[in-house]
Design brief:
Helix content is about 15%, strand content about 50%. It has one domain (about 25-155): Immunoglobulin-like (Sandwich), CATH 2.60.40.680. The chain is mainly β and about 160 residues long. The chain has a six-stranded mixed beta sheet with strand order 2-11-9-4-7-6, with no helix packed on it.
Length: about 160
């Protein structure tokens, strides 16, 4: 009986840990343009950082590169160190660090990056957002879920 209680307690603790780590969500907004060559700006946002945010490395890619291109990337003021791969491209890697600890524990609606997307042909493309690395102010991993958006080129 003691063994079953120990196993049940261990399972409960593991469940709580996974829930706490997975609580954050990165959102990539839907956007659209009405002509080939037009651009739209989308924000990549982390909904909450219960223990602050130290930094991240994130890859963003158009699932249909014939429809959309990433032409520019911008970073928020808290990102004291920042970098992105060469643009324009159908995918890019974004890296940022909060060396001055501006994103404190309990922060919400944290901007991670702003991307400019350009329509290349009529159609839609979803985007894949992959977190390579993200950590809080204590160095613990943040493993957010992703709410990916779609970019649509509506040509009349």
């Amino acid at each position: 009986m003691k063994r079953i209680s120990t196993i049940a307690l261990l399972m409960l603790v593991l469940t709580l840990l996974v829930t706490a780590v997975s609580a954050s969500v990165i959102s990539f907004e839907n956007s659209q343009v009405n002509a080939i060559g037009d651009t739209a700006t989308v924000n990549l946002v982390l909904d909450e950082a219960p223990d602050g945010l130290a930094g991240y490395s994130i890859a963003v890619a158009a699932n249909d590169p014939s429809v959309a291109s990433i032409t520019a990337a911008g970073f928020p003021a808290w990102a004291t160190m920042k970098d992105n791969s060469a643009l324009p491209a159908s995918s890019c890697t974004l890296k940022a660090a909060d060396l001055s600890e501006q994103v404190q524990a309990g922060a919400t609606s944290i901007p991670l990056a702003t991307l400019t997307l350009q329509g290349l042909k009529s159609g839609s493309s979803s985007f894949t957002v992959t977190v390579t690395r993200m950590s809080d102010d204590s160095g613990s991993k943040i493993i957010p879920t992703i709410s990916a958006g779609t970019f649509t080129v509506n040509v009349p």
